[in-house]
Design brief:
Layout lengths: L24 H4 L6 E2 L2 E3 L3 H17 L5 H14 L1 E3 L2 E5 L3 H64 L1 E3 L2 E5 L3 H17 L5 H14 L1 E3 L2 E5 L3 H18 L3 H15 L1 E3 L2 E5 L3 H32 L14 H40 L1 E4 L1 E2 L18 H4 L6
Antiparallel strand pairs: 1-12, 2-3, 3-4, 4-5, 5-6, 6-7, 7-8, 8-9, 9-10, 10-11
Helix pairs in contact: 2-3, 2-10, 3-4, 4-5, 5-6, 6-7, 7-8, 8-9, 9-10
Length: 394
Amino acid sequence: MNEDDKQGWPEPAPPQEPSVPQVTPAEADGGGTGDSLELTFSATRRQFRKLVLRQMLMMVATFGVYWFWARTNVRRFIWGHLSLGGSRLEYSGRGMELFLGFLIVGVALALAFWIIQFAILAIAGPQFAPFAWLLTLYPLLGILGVIAIYRRHRYMIRRTSWRGIHCSLSGSTGGYVGQIILPLLATVFTLGVALPWLTITIQRYLVSNMTLGSERFVYQGRSTDVFGRWVLCWLLMPLTGGLALAWWRGFTTQYMLRQTRLGTLGFSSEIRPMQFVSIYFFGALKAFLIVNGIFFVIFSILFAGGSLPVPGQEGTFDAGQLVLYAIPYMLFMVIIGPVSYSAYLYFVEYPTVEHVFQTTTIVGSMDIENIVQVADSDRGAGSGLDAVLGMDGI
């Protein structure tokens, strides 16, 4: 972390001593008996901008349905420009898998919510049913959101390979929920103060169940190491307009990378948490201006041309006028979704990923020949839950 990052923010805690075999100085310098691996990210903003613009036009043309293929292409782009030891990662996910997963989960959740609403109405009665439904809905959405994190990671990891060796993420949704339920409840009932416990528990479950062929990842992070920083961020959130969360994401990403190992390999991260703050502030501002600029242009053209009645003017609308009045809103809904997603992806998510990869290095060496294939690349529907819940990003 440079000097600018230290102003007004706590300095990240140093990595804890690992509980797995140590990396010797010779191995750290590439002088071990194994292969020294270099992490390289070769994509450029210009390349990604072209991809995002093409995807945005396709989403507009298909009324948003192409979003599933766009998301797949973005992942394939990033994986394809990320090299480990000179060999690029490969992503085998498909847009149709995400689309089918969305349909399956969407139908299942719609049916489940209908049954729950019916049960609440029968138990609480018409008078108290809306209140009881809200009390049930928000915790349920919170649990589903945390489950979506696991299922999205499992889908992406199982469709990732390197040098023909497939990655895998074991475990189960039930086992995952069993691990995170107490931290999740503690986070809810403490109004977010216990978030580090939940964050570290999720990361430990994901990393500890992740493998590259026969080689398993190990995670050594502890919530006590980051709790003090989170309390400060929690207190500063109202004063920073939520930007403290961006700093928290940068700090925890750095910390979790440093606490992750793959055999004798470790990760050294020089992420600057304040860079995350800058990305989120200016990126979100640019995305906001673009989206609202499009909104302003659409409505200005339609209303200024006199083809549509201006809201608030005296008079009544006939059926034809109502149809014309709906045009800008329909046009806005068709365009705004793809534009919002693309703007957020280009101005916020991609710069964040780029900064993480450019500031992360592999420490140590390992005998790659000892890694053997133990799993085939998965096929089938995607998780779908994150899409149903509107969890965007990469």
